[in-house]
Write a structure and sequence with these properties.
The chain has 279 residues and is of the alpha/beta class. It is built from ten helices and ten strands. It has two domains: 141 residues, Rossmann fold (3-Layer(aba) Sandwich); 122 residues, HUPs (Rossmann fold). α8 packs across α10.
Length: 279
C-alpha cells in the first residue's frame, strides 16, 4: 500500500519550493507520479468597479493571471524535470471565487495532496481555500509542509493525535502508508475521559488495530497542561523528534475555526514538522 498519485497546487513560486521538494522525495520513496497544477489567480472583484471599467480591468487581470500561470509552470517544469521522477505539470487560470472547483477536481483523483503551510508571512489569500478545497470538496488527505523543512521520503517517527473522533480515525486510515513505513508511531492522547469505556486503556484499541497492520506503536497519555491542544502536540512533537504529525482536521466548523481558532488552525500556524490532515 502506497501513495501512487501525488498532487501539489501552485499559485506562486516563493513558498512552493518546499512542497515541490517534499513531493519529489515522496515520489521517489513511493514510486509515485507527481503532478503540479500551476494556477494563475485572478484576484479581482469586478462587481466593485464603476460602470464601464469592468471589461478593461477584467482583461488586465486575466492577462496578468495568464502570465503568472506561465511563469509558475516554467518553474515547476524546471524543478521537476531535474528530479528523475515521473511527473506532469499543467497550468491554467482561475478566479479566486472559483478556485475550489479546479483544486477539488484534481484532488479527487489524487492519493495525497502536498501543499505549503497556508498561514504565515506573505501568504496569498487563496492559500487557505486551496487546502480546504482539497480536503472538503476533493475528499483527499493533505500534507502541509512548513517553510524550509527538510523533505522526507519516509518518516521514522510519526505522532498521531488521537481523540476518538471520526476525523482522527479517517486521518489515521489515510495515513497508513506512512505509519506502516515508520519505525515508530506515537499515539498521543490528551486528558482521556475518566469515565469512558477505554478509561483503563486509552488508545489501546487503536494501537491494536495498527499493530495488525504491522505498525509499531507506543501510547503517550498527556495532561492538558497548556491552554491549547496544539501547543501540547507541538511541544511533544519536538520532545520526541517526530518527523510528521497525523491528525483529524476541523472537528468544529470551518467558520468557528476561522473566527475563534482551533486545533487545526493553530497547528497549521505553528507546526515545525509536516502535518497530515484528513476530514
Amino acid at each position: 500500500m502506497a501513495y501512487k498519485s501525488l498532487l501539489t497546487v501552485m499559485t506562486e513560486t516563493k513558498h512552493s519550493q518546499t512542497a515541490l521538494a517534499q513531493m519529489v522525495a515522496l515520489a521517489e520513496g513511493q514510486g509515485a507520479h507527481a503532478e503540479a497544477l500551476c494556477l494563475g489567480v485572478d484576484r479581482s472583484q469586478t462587481g466593485y468597479y464603476y460602470a464601464g471599467a469592468n471589461a478593461l480591468i477584467l482583461q488586465e487581470t486575466l492577462s496578468r493571471a495568464n502570465a503568472e500561470a506561465d511563469e509558475i509552470l516554467a518553474y515547476a517544469q524546471d524543478f521537476l524535470g531535474k528530479s528523475g521522477i515521473r511527473w506532469s505539470a499543467e497550468n491554467g487560470v482561475a478566479q479566486i471565487a472559483d478556485l475550489g472547483r479546479h483544486v477539488a477536481r484534481r484532488a479527487r483523483f489524487s492519493d495525497l495532496v502536498i501543499l505549503p503551510r497556508p498561514y504565515g508571512k506573505d501568504r496569498n489569500a487563496e492559500s487557505e481555500p486551496i487546502v480546504e478545497a482539497a480536503m472538503f470538496e476533493g475528499h483527499a488527505p493533505v500534507l502541509l509542509v512548513p517553510d524550509d523543512v527538510e523533505p522526507i521520503s519516509s518518516p521514522k517517527t510519526v505522532m498521531v493525535g488521537w481523540n476518538e473522533s471520526i476525523e482522527a480515525m479517517r486521518a489515521i486510515r489515510r495515513a497508513l502508508p506512512f505509519l506502516k513505513q515508520a519505525e515508530l508511531a506515537r499515539i498521543v492522547v490528551i486528558d482521556p475521559p475518566r469515565h469512558g469505556p477505554d478509561r483503563s486503556d486509552p488508545g489501546g484499541l487503536l494501537s491494536q488495530m495498527l499493530a495488525r497492520h504491522g505498525v509499531k506503536c507506543e501510547i503517550d497519555v498527556l495532561s492538558k497542561t497548556m491552554t491549547r491542544v496544539s501547543d501540547i502536540l507541538n511541544r511533544h512533537a519536538a520532545d520526541t523528534e517526530a518527523d510528521m504529525i497525523v491528525m483529524g482536521a476541523y472537528g468544529h466548523s470551518r467558520f468557528r475555526e476561522a473566527i475563534l481558532g482551533g486545533a487545526t488552525r493553530n497547528m497549521l500556524e505553528q507546526s515545525e514538522v509536516p502535518v497530515f490532515l484528513a476530514h
